[in-house]
Protein backbone atom coordinates (compact mmCIF):
# COMPACT_ATOMS: atom_id res chain seq x y z
CA UNK A 1 0.00 0.00 0.00
CA UNK A 2 0.98 3.62 -0.53
CA UNK A 3 2.47 5.45 2.41
CA UNK A 4 0.05 8.29 1.61
CA UNK A 5 -3.56 8.38 2.79
CA UNK A 6 -5.60 8.28 -0.46
CA UNK A 7 -8.19 10.65 1.03
CA UNK A 8 -5.60 13.35 1.74
CA UNK A 9 -3.14 12.91 -1.13
CA UNK A 10 -2.61 16.22 -2.96
CA UNK A 11 -2.10 16.51 -6.70
CA UNK A 12 0.46 18.85 -8.20
CA UNK A 13 -0.61 21.97 -10.09
CA UNK A 14 1.19 20.59 -13.13
CA UNK A 15 -0.91 17.42 -13.15
CA UNK A 16 -4.16 19.33 -12.68
CA UNK A 17 -3.23 21.58 -15.59
CA UNK A 18 -2.43 18.56 -17.76
CA UNK A 19 -5.79 17.02 -16.92
CA UNK A 20 -7.57 20.25 -17.85
CA UNK A 21 -5.75 20.27 -21.19
CA UNK A 22 -7.56 17.03 -22.03
CA UNK A 23 -10.96 18.69 -22.08
CA UNK A 24 -9.52 21.73 -23.83
CA UNK A 25 -8.39 19.43 -26.63
CA UNK A 26 -11.67 17.49 -26.64
CA UNK A 27 -13.74 20.65 -26.89
CA UNK A 28 -11.62 22.20 -29.62
CA UNK A 29 -12.60 19.21 -31.73
CA UNK A 30 -16.18 18.87 -30.43
CA UNK A 31 -17.34 22.50 -30.24
CA UNK A 32 -16.74 23.31 -33.88
CA UNK A 33 -19.44 20.77 -34.65
CA UNK A 34 -21.74 21.81 -31.82
CA UNK A 35 -21.57 25.47 -32.79
CA UNK A 36 -21.28 25.52 -36.58
CA UNK A 37 -22.06 22.17 -38.16
CA UNK A 38 -25.83 22.78 -38.40
CA UNK A 39 -25.16 26.17 -40.02
CA UNK A 40 -22.66 24.52 -42.41
CA UNK A 41 -25.33 21.99 -43.36
CA UNK A 42 -28.02 24.61 -43.98
CA UNK A 43 -25.99 27.44 -45.51
CA UNK A 44 -23.18 25.65 -47.38
CA UNK A 45 -24.52 22.21 -48.22
CA UNK A 46 -28.02 23.54 -48.83
CA UNK A 47 -29.67 20.94 -46.61
CA UNK A 48 -33.03 21.67 -44.94
CA UNK A 49 -32.68 22.32 -41.18
CA UNK A 50 -34.97 19.33 -40.59
CA UNK A 51 -32.39 17.04 -42.21
CA UNK A 52 -29.67 18.51 -40.02
CA UNK A 53 -31.75 17.75 -36.94
CA UNK A 54 -32.26 14.15 -38.06
CA UNK A 55 -28.52 13.71 -38.61
CA UNK A 56 -27.80 14.87 -35.07
CA UNK A 57 -30.53 12.65 -33.66
CA UNK A 58 -29.44 9.45 -35.42
CA UNK A 59 -25.70 9.96 -34.91
CA UNK A 60 -25.99 10.92 -31.23
CA UNK A 61 -28.21 7.94 -30.42
CA UNK A 62 -25.61 5.74 -32.11
CA UNK A 63 -22.78 7.24 -30.04
CA UNK A 64 -24.81 6.82 -26.86
CA UNK A 65 -24.44 3.06 -27.38
CA UNK A 66 -20.79 3.35 -28.38
CA UNK A 67 -20.24 4.98 -24.98
CA UNK A 68 -21.65 1.82 -23.41
CA UNK A 69 -19.30 -0.33 -25.52
CA UNK A 70 -16.40 1.83 -24.36
CA UNK A 71 -17.39 1.14 -20.75
CA UNK A 72 -17.42 -2.60 -21.43
CA UNK A 73 -14.00 -2.35 -23.07
CA UNK A 74 -12.51 -0.39 -20.18
CA UNK A 75 -13.93 -2.66 -17.49
CA UNK A 76 -12.76 -5.76 -19.39
CA UNK A 77 -9.10 -4.71 -19.29
CA UNK A 78 -7.22 -6.89 -16.82
CA UNK A 79 -3.68 -6.59 -18.14
CA UNK A 80 -2.23 -3.12 -18.57
CA UNK A 81 1.30 -1.86 -18.38
CA UNK A 82 2.93 1.36 -17.20
CA UNK A 83 0.86 3.44 -19.66
CA UNK A 84 -2.15 2.70 -17.48
CA UNK A 85 -5.68 1.49 -18.02
CA UNK A 86 -7.19 4.67 -19.48
CA UNK A 87 -4.35 6.86 -20.79
CA UNK A 88 -3.63 5.00 -24.07
CA UNK A 89 -7.16 5.67 -25.36
CA UNK A 90 -6.79 9.39 -24.65
CA UNK A 91 -3.93 9.65 -27.13
CA UNK A 92 -4.55 7.01 -29.78
CA UNK A 93 -8.26 7.66 -30.33
CA UNK A 94 -7.62 11.41 -30.72
CA UNK A 95 -6.17 10.95 -34.22
CA UNK A 96 -9.30 9.46 -35.88
CA UNK A 97 -11.41 11.98 -33.92
CA UNK A 98 -9.44 14.82 -35.54
CA UNK A 99 -9.75 13.31 -39.02
CA UNK A 100 -13.50 12.79 -38.75
CA UNK A 101 -14.07 16.26 -37.27
CA UNK A 102 -12.26 17.86 -40.20
CA UNK A 103 -13.99 15.71 -42.84
CA UNK A 104 -17.40 16.89 -41.62
CA UNK A 105 -16.64 20.36 -42.99
CA UNK A 106 -15.76 19.27 -46.52
CA UNK A 107 -18.31 20.64 -49.01
CA UNK A 108 -19.65 18.51 -51.86
CA UNK A 109 -22.12 18.70 -54.75
CA UNK A 110 -23.79 15.33 -54.19
CA UNK A 111 -27.54 14.84 -54.21
CA UNK A 112 -29.46 15.64 -51.02
CA UNK A 113 -29.77 11.95 -50.20
CA UNK A 114 -26.03 11.37 -50.61
CA UNK A 115 -25.18 14.49 -48.62
CA UNK A 116 -27.39 13.36 -45.77
CA UNK A 117 -26.01 9.81 -45.78
CA UNK A 118 -22.39 10.99 -45.89
CA UNK A 119 -22.93 13.59 -43.16
CA UNK A 120 -24.59 10.97 -40.93
CA UNK A 121 -21.77 8.46 -41.50
CA UNK A 122 -19.07 11.02 -40.71
CA UNK A 123 -20.88 12.17 -37.58
CA UNK A 124 -21.24 8.55 -36.42
CA UNK A 125 -17.52 7.87 -36.99
CA UNK A 126 -16.65 11.01 -35.09
CA UNK A 127 -18.87 9.91 -32.21
CA UNK A 128 -17.43 6.39 -32.13
CA UNK A 129 -13.83 7.50 -31.71
CA UNK A 130 -14.78 10.44 -29.51
CA UNK A 131 -16.39 7.93 -27.12
CA UNK A 132 -13.13 5.98 -26.87
CA UNK A 133 -11.17 9.15 -26.21
CA UNK A 134 -13.44 11.15 -23.96
CA UNK A 135 -15.00 8.35 -21.89
CA UNK A 136 -11.54 7.06 -21.03
CA UNK A 137 -10.53 10.59 -20.06
CA UNK A 138 -13.50 11.02 -17.72
CA UNK A 139 -13.43 7.51 -16.22
CA UNK A 140 -9.78 8.03 -15.26
CA UNK A 141 -10.52 10.42 -12.35
CA UNK A 142 -11.07 7.71 -9.67
CA UNK A 143 -7.74 6.20 -10.74
CA UNK A 144 -5.96 9.54 -10.30
CA UNK A 145 -7.18 10.44 -6.80
CA UNK A 146 -9.55 9.35 -4.05
CA UNK A 147 -9.48 12.75 -2.35
CA UNK A 148 -12.95 14.33 -2.85
CA UNK A 149 -11.56 17.87 -2.73
CA UNK A 150 -8.92 17.01 -5.33
CA UNK A 151 -11.67 15.53 -7.50
CA UNK A 152 -13.49 18.85 -7.25
CA UNK A 153 -10.26 20.58 -8.32
CA UNK A 154 -9.89 18.21 -11.29
CA UNK A 155 -13.51 18.85 -12.23
CA UNK A 156 -12.84 22.59 -12.11
CA UNK A 157 -9.72 22.25 -14.26
CA UNK A 158 -11.66 20.04 -16.65
CA UNK A 159 -14.49 22.55 -16.93
CA UNK A 160 -11.94 25.33 -17.28
CA UNK A 161 -10.37 23.50 -20.21
CA UNK A 162 -13.77 22.81 -21.75
CA UNK A 163 -14.79 26.45 -21.34
CA UNK A 164 -11.55 27.72 -22.85
CA UNK A 165 -12.02 25.37 -25.81
CA UNK A 166 -15.58 26.60 -26.28
CA UNK A 167 -14.43 30.21 -25.93
CA UNK A 168 -11.73 29.80 -28.57
CA UNK A 169 -14.19 28.17 -30.97
CA UNK A 170 -16.83 30.83 -30.32
CA UNK A 171 -14.44 33.74 -30.73
CA UNK A 172 -12.04 32.39 -33.34
CA UNK A 173 -13.82 30.02 -35.73
CA UNK A 174 -15.99 32.47 -37.67
CA UNK A 175 -13.25 35.13 -38.07
CA UNK A 176 -10.98 32.46 -39.60
CA UNK A 177 -13.84 31.31 -41.83
CA UNK A 178 -14.61 34.91 -42.84
CA UNK A 179 -11.06 35.33 -44.19
CA UNK A 180 -12.24 33.23 -47.16
CA UNK A 181 -15.22 35.42 -48.05
CA UNK A 182 -15.00 34.51 -51.74
CA UNK A 183 -15.17 30.79 -50.90
CA UNK A 184 -17.00 30.26 -47.58
CA UNK A 185 -16.83 26.47 -47.80
CA UNK A 186 -13.03 26.57 -47.90
CA UNK A 187 -13.12 28.88 -44.89
CA UNK A 188 -15.05 26.30 -42.87
CA UNK A 189 -12.55 23.58 -43.76
CA UNK A 190 -9.47 25.68 -42.95
CA UNK A 191 -10.93 26.78 -39.63
CA UNK A 192 -11.82 23.18 -38.72
CA UNK A 193 -8.32 21.96 -39.60
CA UNK A 194 -6.75 24.67 -37.45
CA UNK A 195 -8.81 23.84 -34.38
CA UNK A 196 -8.47 20.04 -34.56
CA UNK A 197 -4.68 20.36 -34.88
CA UNK A 198 -4.60 22.38 -31.68
CA UNK A 199 -6.88 19.78 -30.10
CA UNK A 200 -4.47 16.95 -30.93
CA UNK A 201 -1.63 18.85 -29.29
CA UNK A 202 -3.67 19.28 -26.10
CA UNK A 203 -4.59 15.57 -25.94
CA UNK A 204 -0.90 14.67 -26.16
CA UNK A 205 -0.17 17.07 -23.29
CA UNK A 206 -2.83 15.40 -21.15
CA UNK A 207 -1.51 11.93 -21.94
CA UNK A 208 1.99 12.84 -20.83
CA UNK A 209 1.03 14.82 -17.74
CA UNK A 210 -1.45 12.67 -15.76
CA UNK A 211 -0.80 9.64 -13.59
CA UNK A 212 -2.98 6.66 -12.70
CA UNK A 213 -2.34 5.75 -9.05
CA UNK A 214 -5.28 3.53 -8.12
CA UNK A 215 -5.81 1.12 -10.98
CA UNK A 216 -8.16 -1.75 -10.32
CA UNK A 217 -8.57 -4.86 -12.47
CA UNK A 218 -11.93 -6.60 -12.55
CA UNK A 219 -12.28 -9.97 -10.81
CA UNK A 220 -12.51 -12.98 -13.11
CA UNK A 221 -16.14 -13.56 -12.19
CA UNK A 222 -17.19 -10.03 -13.19
CA UNK A 223 -18.05 -9.93 -16.88
CA UNK A 224 -18.83 -6.41 -18.12
CA UNK A 225 -21.67 -5.96 -20.60
CA UNK A 226 -23.92 -3.24 -22.01
CA UNK A 227 -26.77 -4.55 -19.85
CA UNK A 228 -24.62 -4.15 -16.73
CA UNK A 229 -23.87 -0.58 -17.77
CA UNK A 230 -27.61 0.11 -17.86
CA UNK A 231 -28.00 -1.63 -14.52
CA UNK A 232 -25.19 0.51 -13.13
CA UNK A 233 -27.51 3.49 -13.63
CA UNK A 234 -30.68 2.06 -12.13
CA UNK A 235 -28.97 0.32 -9.19
CA UNK A 236 -27.14 3.49 -8.26
CA UNK A 237 -29.72 6.11 -7.11
CA UNK A 238 -27.29 9.07 -6.98
CA UNK A 239 -26.09 8.26 -10.51
CA UNK A 240 -29.67 7.94 -11.81
CA UNK A 241 -30.62 11.34 -10.38
CA UNK A 242 -27.46 12.89 -11.80
CA UNK A 243 -28.21 11.38 -15.23
CA UNK A 244 -31.72 12.85 -15.26
CA UNK A 245 -30.48 16.30 -14.19
CA UNK A 246 -27.67 16.17 -16.72
CA UNK A 247 -30.09 15.14 -19.46
CA UNK A 248 -31.82 18.48 -18.89
CA UNK A 249 -28.78 20.72 -18.40
CA UNK A 250 -26.77 19.44 -21.36
CA UNK A 251 -29.76 19.67 -23.68
CA UNK A 252 -30.37 23.24 -22.51
CA UNK A 253 -26.72 24.24 -22.95
CA UNK A 254 -26.39 22.71 -26.42
CA UNK A 255 -29.66 24.23 -27.65
CA UNK A 256 -28.41 27.63 -26.55
CA UNK A 257 -25.07 27.15 -28.33
CA UNK A 258 -26.68 25.92 -31.54
CA UNK A 259 -29.17 28.80 -31.78
CA UNK A 260 -26.97 31.73 -30.68
CA UNK A 261 -25.36 32.07 -34.13
CA UNK A 262 -28.84 32.44 -35.67
CA UNK A 263 -30.00 34.79 -32.90
CA UNK A 264 -27.12 37.22 -33.26
CA UNK A 265 -27.41 37.27 -37.06
CA UNK A 266 -31.17 37.58 -37.51
CA UNK A 267 -32.60 39.01 -34.25
CA UNK A 268 -29.83 41.40 -33.24
CA UNK A 269 -28.57 41.87 -36.84
CA UNK A 270 -24.96 41.68 -35.67
CA UNK A 271 -23.18 38.41 -36.46
CA UNK A 272 -19.87 39.88 -35.25
CA UNK A 273 -21.45 40.18 -31.79
CA UNK A 274 -21.11 36.40 -31.48
CA UNK A 275 -17.37 36.71 -30.94
CA UNK A 276 -17.75 39.45 -28.33
CA UNK A 277 -20.56 37.63 -26.58
CA UNK A 278 -18.48 34.47 -26.55
CA UNK A 279 -15.51 36.35 -25.13
CA UNK A 280 -17.42 37.90 -22.22
CA UNK A 281 -19.77 35.01 -21.43
CA UNK A 282 -17.05 32.38 -21.58
CA UNK A 283 -14.91 34.67 -19.45
CA UNK A 284 -17.69 34.56 -16.87
CA UNK A 285 -17.68 30.76 -17.08
CA UNK A 286 -13.93 30.72 -16.43
CA UNK A 287 -14.46 32.99 -13.41
CA UNK A 288 -17.13 30.63 -12.13
CA UNK A 289 -14.86 27.63 -12.64
CA UNK A 290 -12.15 29.31 -10.56
CA UNK A 291 -14.67 29.78 -7.75
CA UNK A 292 -15.89 26.17 -7.77
CA UNK A 293 -13.34 24.64 -5.32
CA UNK A 294 -13.77 27.42 -2.72
CA UNK A 295 -17.57 27.51 -2.93
CA UNK A 296 -17.83 23.71 -2.78
CA UNK A 297 -15.59 23.64 0.28
CA UNK A 298 -17.82 26.18 2.02
CA UNK A 299 -21.34 25.21 0.90
CA UNK A 300 -21.10 21.67 -0.50
CA UNK A 301 -21.50 20.35 -4.04
CA UNK A 302 -25.27 20.05 -4.09
CA UNK A 303 -25.93 23.59 -2.83
CA UNK A 304 -23.47 25.12 -5.30
CA UNK A 305 -25.02 23.08 -8.13
CA UNK A 306 -28.50 24.36 -7.29
CA UNK A 307 -27.26 27.94 -7.00
CA UNK A 308 -25.73 27.72 -10.46
CA UNK A 309 -29.01 26.47 -11.93
CA UNK A 310 -30.91 29.38 -10.40
CA UNK A 311 -28.48 31.94 -11.84
CA UNK A 312 -28.81 30.25 -15.22
CA UNK A 313 -32.63 30.36 -15.17
CA UNK A 314 -32.79 34.00 -14.03
CA UNK A 315 -30.35 35.09 -16.75
CA UNK A 316 -32.45 33.43 -19.45
CA UNK A 317 -35.72 34.92 -18.16
CA UNK A 318 -34.22 38.42 -18.11
CA UNK A 319 -32.89 37.92 -21.64
CA UNK A 320 -36.25 36.79 -22.98
CA UNK A 321 -38.07 39.89 -21.74
CA UNK A 322 -35.37 42.55 -21.99
CA UNK A 323 -32.48 41.18 -24.08
CA UNK A 324 -33.42 43.02 -27.27
CA UNK A 325 -30.21 45.08 -27.50
CA UNK A 326 -26.66 43.81 -27.94
CA UNK A 327 -25.55 45.20 -24.57
CA UNK A 328 -28.40 43.67 -22.56
CA UNK A 329 -28.13 40.37 -24.44
CA UNK A 330 -24.45 40.06 -23.57
CA UNK A 331 -25.03 41.15 -19.95
CA UNK A 332 -27.83 38.67 -19.23
CA UNK A 333 -26.01 35.94 -21.14
CA UNK A 334 -23.00 36.47 -18.87
CA UNK A 335 -25.22 35.85 -15.84
CA UNK A 336 -26.63 32.66 -17.33
CA UNK A 337 -23.25 31.34 -18.43
CA UNK A 338 -21.76 32.18 -15.02
CA UNK A 339 -24.38 29.86 -13.52
CA UNK A 340 -23.59 27.10 -16.02
CA UNK A 341 -19.96 27.13 -14.86
CA UNK A 342 -20.93 25.67 -11.48
CA UNK A 343 -23.39 23.19 -12.99
CA UNK A 344 -21.09 21.82 -15.69
CA UNK A 345 -18.07 21.67 -13.40
CA UNK A 346 -19.89 19.77 -10.67
CA UNK A 347 -21.38 17.28 -13.11
CA UNK A 348 -17.85 15.87 -13.46
CA UNK A 349 -17.06 16.15 -9.74
CA UNK A 350 -20.18 14.20 -8.76
CA UNK A 351 -19.69 11.24 -11.12
CA UNK A 352 -16.57 9.84 -9.36
CA UNK A 353 -18.52 9.97 -6.09
CA UNK A 354 -21.17 7.72 -7.62
CA UNK A 355 -18.42 5.27 -8.63
CA UNK A 356 -17.49 4.90 -4.96
CA UNK A 357 -21.17 4.64 -4.01
CA UNK A 358 -21.58 1.81 -6.53
CA UNK A 359 -18.56 -0.03 -5.09
CA UNK A 360 -19.92 0.42 -1.56
CA UNK A 361 -23.32 -0.93 -2.56
CA UNK A 362 -22.31 -3.84 -4.83
CA UNK A 363 -18.71 -4.65 -3.88
CA UNK A 364 -17.63 -4.19 -7.52
CA UNK A 365 -15.73 -1.14 -8.66
CA UNK A 366 -16.66 -0.37 -12.27
CA UNK A 367 -15.47 3.06 -13.35
CA UNK A 368 -16.11 2.34 -17.02
CA UNK A 369 -19.69 1.11 -16.58
CA UNK A 370 -20.65 3.92 -14.23
CA UNK A 371 -19.04 6.65 -16.28
CA UNK A 372 -20.35 5.45 -19.63
CA UNK A 373 -23.77 4.86 -18.12
CA UNK A 374 -23.67 8.53 -17.22
CA UNK A 375 -22.38 9.62 -20.63
CA UNK A 376 -25.16 7.56 -22.22
CA UNK A 377 -27.61 10.07 -20.74
CA UNK A 378 -25.43 12.92 -21.99
CA UNK A 379 -25.46 11.56 -25.55
CA UNK A 380 -29.25 11.10 -25.47
CA UNK A 381 -29.44 14.69 -24.28
CA UNK A 382 -27.09 15.85 -27.03
CA UNK A 383 -29.17 13.92 -29.60
CA UNK A 384 -32.31 15.75 -28.54
CA UNK A 385 -30.43 19.06 -28.38
CA UNK A 386 -29.20 18.55 -31.94
CA UNK A 387 -32.58 17.36 -33.20
CA UNK A 388 -34.81 20.00 -31.62
CA UNK A 389 -33.14 23.11 -33.11
CA UNK A 390 -33.31 21.61 -36.60
CA UNK A 391 -37.00 20.74 -36.17
CA UNK A 392 -37.82 24.08 -34.53
CA UNK A 393 -36.03 26.10 -37.20
CA UNK A 394 -38.26 24.40 -39.74
CA UNK A 395 -41.40 24.90 -37.65
CA UNK A 396 -40.82 28.63 -37.09
CA UNK A 397 -40.23 29.19 -40.81
CA UNK A 398 -36.49 29.88 -40.85
CA UNK A 399 -35.13 30.68 -44.34
CA UNK A 400 -31.31 30.62 -44.76
CA UNK A 401 -29.61 33.89 -45.76
CA UNK A 402 -32.86 35.90 -45.87
CA UNK A 403 -34.83 38.38 -43.80
CA UNK A 404 -36.81 36.37 -41.24
CA UNK A 405 -40.52 36.73 -40.51
CA UNK A 406 -41.83 38.04 -37.17
CA UNK A 407 -42.89 34.49 -36.21
CA UNK A 408 -39.41 33.18 -36.99
CA UNK A 409 -37.77 35.87 -34.86
CA UNK A 410 -40.10 35.12 -31.94
CA UNK A 411 -39.35 31.42 -32.34
CA UNK A 412 -35.61 32.06 -32.15
CA UNK A 413 -36.07 34.03 -28.91
CA UNK A 414 -38.16 31.25 -27.38
CA UNK A 415 -35.74 28.54 -28.45
CA UNK A 416 -32.59 30.21 -27.10
CA UNK A 417 -34.10 31.42 -23.79
CA UNK A 418 -37.34 29.73 -22.69
CA UNK A 419 -36.41 26.14 -23.52
CA UNK A 420 -33.03 26.22 -21.69
CA UNK A 421 -34.63 28.04 -18.74
CA UNK A 422 -37.36 25.44 -18.38
CA UNK A 423 -34.89 22.57 -18.55
CA UNK A 424 -32.65 24.22 -15.92
CA UNK A 425 -35.62 24.50 -13.55
CA UNK A 426 -36.50 20.81 -14.04
CA UNK A 427 -32.87 19.88 -13.27
CA UNK A 428 -32.94 21.99 -10.10
CA UNK A 429 -36.10 20.27 -8.86
CA UNK A 430 -34.62 16.84 -9.61
CA UNK A 431 -31.34 17.46 -7.78
CA UNK A 432 -32.92 19.38 -4.93
CA UNK A 433 -35.40 16.70 -3.94
CA UNK A 434 -33.75 13.42 -4.94
CA UNK A 435 -29.92 13.67 -4.77
CA UNK A 436 -28.89 12.44 -1.30
CA UNK A 437 -25.14 11.75 -1.61
CA UNK A 438 -23.76 14.66 0.44
CA UNK A 439 -20.22 15.16 1.74
CA UNK A 440 -20.81 13.53 5.12
CA UNK A 441 -22.33 10.41 3.62
CA UNK A 442 -19.57 10.17 1.00
CA UNK A 443 -16.85 10.29 3.69
CA UNK A 444 -18.59 7.51 5.62
CA UNK A 445 -18.84 5.38 2.45
CA UNK A 446 -15.12 5.75 1.68
CA UNK A 447 -14.23 4.82 5.25
CA UNK A 448 -16.43 1.71 5.11
CA UNK A 449 -14.91 0.61 1.80
CA UNK A 450 -11.42 0.96 3.26
CA UNK A 451 -12.46 -1.03 6.31
CA UNK A 452 -13.85 -3.83 4.15
CA UNK A 453 -10.63 -4.12 2.20
CA UNK A 454 -8.62 -4.51 5.39
CA UNK A 455 -10.56 -7.66 6.20
CA UNK A 456 -10.59 -9.18 2.73
CA UNK A 457 -8.37 -12.19 2.15
CA UNK A 458 -8.25 -12.46 -1.62
CA UNK A 459 -6.07 -14.82 -3.57
CA UNK A 460 -5.43 -12.01 -6.07
CA UNK A 461 -5.22 -8.39 -4.89
CA UNK A 462 -7.74 -6.07 -6.49
CA UNK A 463 -5.96 -2.79 -5.96
CA UNK A 464 -2.72 -1.91 -7.68
CA UNK A 465 -0.97 1.15 -6.27
CA UNK A 466 1.47 2.95 -8.53
CA UNK A 467 3.92 4.87 -6.35
CA UNK A 468 6.52 5.62 -8.99
CA UNK A 469 7.31 9.25 -9.63
CA UNK A 470 6.76 9.05 -13.35
CA UNK A 471 5.06 6.67 -15.74
CA UNK A 472 6.75 5.48 -18.89
CA UNK A 473 5.05 7.08 -21.85
Task: Describe the protein.
Mean pLDDT is 83; it is low at 457-465 and 467-473. This protein has 16 helices and two strands. It has 473 residues and is mostly helical. It has a two-stranded antiparallel ribbon. The protein starts with 12 loop residues before the first helix and ends in an 8-residue tail after the last strand. 77% of the residues lie in helices and 1% in strands. Helix 4 (94-103) runs antiparallel to helix 5 and helix 12 (301-322) packs antiparallel against helix 15.
Radius of gyration: 22 Å
Strands across the major sheet, in which order? Answer: 1-2
CATH superfamily: MFS general substrate transporter like domains
End-to-end CA span: 24 Å
CATH top level is Mainly Alpha
Assess the beta-strand content as a share of residues.
under 5%
**Beta strands, count:** 2
User: H/E element string?
Assistant: HHHHHHHHEHHHHHHHHE
Q: Provide the CATH architecture.
A: Up-down Bundle
Family: Belongs to the sodium:galactoside symporter (TC 2.A.2) family.
Subcellular location: Cell membrane
Keywords: Cell membrane, Membrane, Transmembrane, Transmembrane helix
Protein name: MFS transporter
Amino acid sequence: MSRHDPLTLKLSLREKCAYGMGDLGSNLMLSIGTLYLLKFYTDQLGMPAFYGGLIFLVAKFFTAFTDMLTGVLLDSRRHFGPKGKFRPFILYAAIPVALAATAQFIANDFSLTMKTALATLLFMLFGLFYSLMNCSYGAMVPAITKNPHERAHLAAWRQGGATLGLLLCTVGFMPVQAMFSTNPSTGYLVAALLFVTAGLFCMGWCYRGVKERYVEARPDHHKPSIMKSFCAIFRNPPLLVLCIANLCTLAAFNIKLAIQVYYTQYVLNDLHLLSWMGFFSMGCILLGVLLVPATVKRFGKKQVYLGGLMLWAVGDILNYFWGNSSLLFVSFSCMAFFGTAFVNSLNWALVPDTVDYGEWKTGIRAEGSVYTGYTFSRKISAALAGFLPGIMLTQIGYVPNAVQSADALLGLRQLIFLWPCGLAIIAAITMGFFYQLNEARFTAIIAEIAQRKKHEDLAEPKLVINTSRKLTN
